[in-house]
Fold this sequence. Notes:
There is one protein chain. Helices cover 9% and strands 23% of the residues. The protein has 223 residues and is mainly beta. The chain has an eleven-stranded mixed β-sheet with strand order 1-2-3-4-5-6-7-8-9-11-10, with helices on one face. The chain starts with a strand and ends in a 15-residue tail after the last strand.
Amino acid sequence: MTTFDLNDGVRALNAHLHGEVTGELSAVNPAGRHAVAVGATGAHSVSIDGNVGYYCGGMNQLADIEVRGNAGPGLAENIMSGRVHVRGDASQYCAATGHGGLVVVDGNASSRCGISMKGVNVVVRGNVGHMSAFMAQKGCLVVCGDAGDALGDSLYEARLYVRGSVASLGADCVQKPMEAEHLDELGALLHEAGVTGVDPAEFTRYGSARKLYHFDIDNASDY
């Protein structure tokens, strides 16, 4: 295993992740630094011991990144594939615009979790803040705790599964029935995220009412 001491900066780690040689990597002393493990392009396995700042794991492709601490804003922004797992809490806009892969937060995620997600799957063991899944287009947001105000505002075709309460739904977001395919999908996501002791039947599904796709004068008050 190769170890990078981030007291020397993050460029050496990130440059290695942009190269063709993959393997197990360890990063120590992150001390809240920004842009740690950004832009990985190979099947690396990266463990980061401590808290990270803005944009950790951004634009990830194929790499498996574990943060043994908390993460600042923009965790796994625009993730394309691979996995980013935070053992603590995540700040604002976790997994924003993500196209693929899996993001797991063992604690809570702040506001706008999964904003404009385009295919990424996000599993949060705790709660998510307001405006989560705003304009979410594709993928799944799984919340094992509660969701804040305006969940799924202006939602497209992403699927939202919430186990706890929802403070309020955003424009065009509605509760939908849990069919067998949804229970299977949710069960598989929980298994992949390593969440045990949780029954998919305890969740409620939310999705788009599809009233905002095209302008309709009868829906003018919703715009």
